[in-house]
């Protein structure tokens, strides 16, 4: 079992926190502002030998994640037990599923005819564009079109684990990934890989040189033991229009971009002479939030998803497996899970009442769709999915958009708040109150979105938090 007490704020950390506020408030001193602005152009180029961007001092690497895990009792999860896709049928029955589907279709038509903002014909056309314009085939083994070193009559690429991690990070950032982390599979964390994928194929580990796939299973060689975990940023401006078709399409866009990143990464590693095994089904292969926590990309939060220091919950998480040895990452403690104990904003605004109000995370699950073995605020996925099918007619994601961490990082106050959350937990309740006072969590009017001059994909790639 993993546990680690949060350390108390040190005098040095307090002075840093005070200094961050003081230097940021002194707007007249431009040099000070540039130095302390974590999104400056110069700072954004900083990375270590393994290609990791240098994060601020208040994001601490830790040996164990902030979520408690009982590795002895944790078992590999059967992905078919989730409520994603048609998985909801096993919980509500075919008749109820058909009824909900019919209700959704009727509401969609009614909203289009009544020109309901966020559900108009142009909004639905946007959803169709994202859902039907596939960027390539999703596969376990990858496109397998790139020339291998053998086919080029050249030796495979070789370098240190730091070099491998760095070039992979740089390539994947170029392909469109927001953040990237690496986990080495071992006896414990291999339990985070699904036992059966969403389509019913077994995910097995075998002592073979090459990965392969049959009609019954997908086989990962033992030597392919490094998990690549990456995030794709979602448009916060768009998701602030949840739950509408406008908000739904930004989620679909993140999945199509992730598939493009997966295919390109698989081909990149093939070109270097290595294997890269991807998600053959949507959200397949393994438990994305769990791997993101282990890779240090974020912390598990109240909505039972991951919140990242850089983008809050405004990301989708994906993973691949490779036999290229890379330098691995550690979990982080940025005070996020601790903050969730006091905030509860996502639970208060969840229209389906699917999220927990408990002060502390617990071991008891809500149903078979949850994987036991770790302490979490387990959600009622049936309530969530039923609301999306029968009422919203789209996905929801309100819990993402109202989160206090879903703020842009342009203003100094946001950095000060995140630093305060990390090192001064007594401030958590106050900071949640300030979030309410400034109406940060308020949903925005859908029709306004069509008048916004947003950047590519509706995201700001300068939003990452870098160390000064």
In short:
By secondary structure, this protein is α+β, with helices and mostly antiparallel strands. It is built from 15 helices and 11 strands.
Structural class: alpha+beta
Compute the number of helices: 15
The average pLDDT is: 85
The domain count comes to: 1
Largest β sheet strand count, sense and barrel closure:
4 strands, antiparallel
From the alpha-carbon coordinates, what is the Rg to the nearest angstrom?
A: 22 Å
What characteristic shape results from the CA principal axes?
A: globular
Query: How much of the residues is beta strand, in percent?
Result: 5-15%
Detailed description of the structure:
- The protein has 468 residues and is an alpha+beta fold.
- The chain has one domain (60-403).
- It has 15 helices and eleven strands.
- The strands form four sheets. It has a four-stranded antiparallel beta sheet with strand order 2-6-10-7, sandwiched between helices. The protein has a three-stranded mixed beta sheet with strand order 3-5-4, with no helix packed on it.
- A hairpin with a 3-residue loop joins β4 and β5.
- The radius of gyration is 22 Å and the shape is globular.
- The two termini are 36 Å apart.
Give the key terms.
468 residues, alpha+beta, four-stranded antiparallel sheet, three-stranded mixed sheet, 15 helices, 11 strands, globular
Secondary structure topology:
Layout: H1 11-25, H2 30-36, E1 60-61, H3 89-92, H4 94-113, H5 121-132, H6 161-175, E2 180-184, E3 202-206, E4 212-213, E5 217-221, E6 226-233, H7 236-239, H8 245-272, E7 276-277, H9 288-294, E8 299-300, E9 306-307, E10 315-322, E11 332-333, H10 336-343, H11 345-349, H12 381-392, H13 398-401, H14 412-423, H15 428-437
Parallel strand pairs: 3-5
Antiparallel strand pairs: 1-11, 2-6, 4-5, 6-10, 7-10, 8-9
Helix pairs in contact: 1-14, 4-12, 5-8, 6-8
């Amino acid at each position: 079992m993993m546990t680690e007490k949060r350390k108390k704020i040190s005098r040095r950390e307090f002075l840093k926190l005070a200094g961050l506020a003081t230097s940021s408030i002194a707007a007249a001193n431009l040099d000070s502002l540039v130095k302390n602005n974590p999104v400056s152009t110069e700072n954004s180029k900083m990375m270590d030998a393994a290609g990791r961007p240098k994060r601020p001092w208040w994001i601490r690497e830790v040996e164990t994640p902030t979520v408690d895990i009982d590795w002895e009792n944790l078992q590999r999860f059967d992905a078919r037990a989730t409520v994603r896709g048609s998985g909801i049928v096993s919980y509500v029955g075919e008749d109820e599923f058909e009824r909900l589907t019919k209700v959704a279709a009727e509401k969609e038509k009614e909203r289009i005819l009544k020109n309901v903002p966020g559900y108009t014909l142009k909004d639905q056309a946007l959803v169709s564009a994202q859902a039907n314009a596939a960027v390539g085939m999703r596969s376990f083994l990858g496109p397998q079109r790139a020339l291998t070193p053998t086919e080029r009559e050249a030796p495979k690429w070789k370098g240190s684990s730091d070099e491998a991690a760095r070039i992979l990070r740089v390539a994947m950032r170029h392909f469109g990934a927001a953040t990237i982390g690496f986990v080495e599979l071992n006896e414990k964390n291999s339990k985070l890989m699904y036992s059966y994928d969403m389509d019913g194929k077994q995910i097995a580990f075998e002592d073979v040189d090459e990965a392969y796939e049959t009609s019954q299973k997908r086989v990962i060689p033992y030597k392919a033991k490094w998990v690549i975990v990456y995030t794709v940023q979602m448009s916060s401006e768009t998701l602030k229009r949840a739950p509408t078709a406008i908000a739904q399409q930004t989620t679909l866009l993140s999945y199509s971009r992730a598939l493009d990143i997966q295919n390109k990464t698989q081909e990149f590693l093939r070109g270097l002479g290595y294997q890269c095994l991807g998600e053959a089904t949507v959200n397949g292969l393994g438990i994305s939030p769990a791997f993101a926590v282990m890779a240090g990309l974020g912390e598990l939060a109240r909505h039972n998803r991951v919140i990242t220091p850089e983008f809050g919950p405004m990301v989708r998480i994906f993973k691949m497996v490779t036999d290229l040895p890379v330098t691995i990452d550690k979990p982080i403690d940025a005070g996020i899970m601790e903050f969730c104990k006091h905030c509860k904003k996502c639970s208060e605004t969840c229209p389906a009442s699917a999220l927990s109000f408990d002060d502390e995370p617990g071991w008891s699950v809500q149903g078979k769709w949850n994987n036991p073995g770790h302490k979490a605020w387990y959600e009622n996925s049936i309530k969530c999915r039923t609301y999306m099918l029968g009422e919203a007619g789209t996905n929801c994601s309100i819990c993402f958009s109202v989160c206090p961490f879903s703020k842009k990082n342009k203003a100094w106050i946001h950095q000060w708040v995140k630093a305060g959350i990390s090192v001064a937990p007594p401030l958590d309740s106050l900071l949640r109150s300030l979030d309410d006072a400034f109406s940060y969590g308020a949903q925005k009017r859908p029709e306004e979105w069509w008048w916004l001059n947003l950047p590519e994909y509706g995201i700001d790639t300068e939003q990452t938090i870098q160390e000064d």
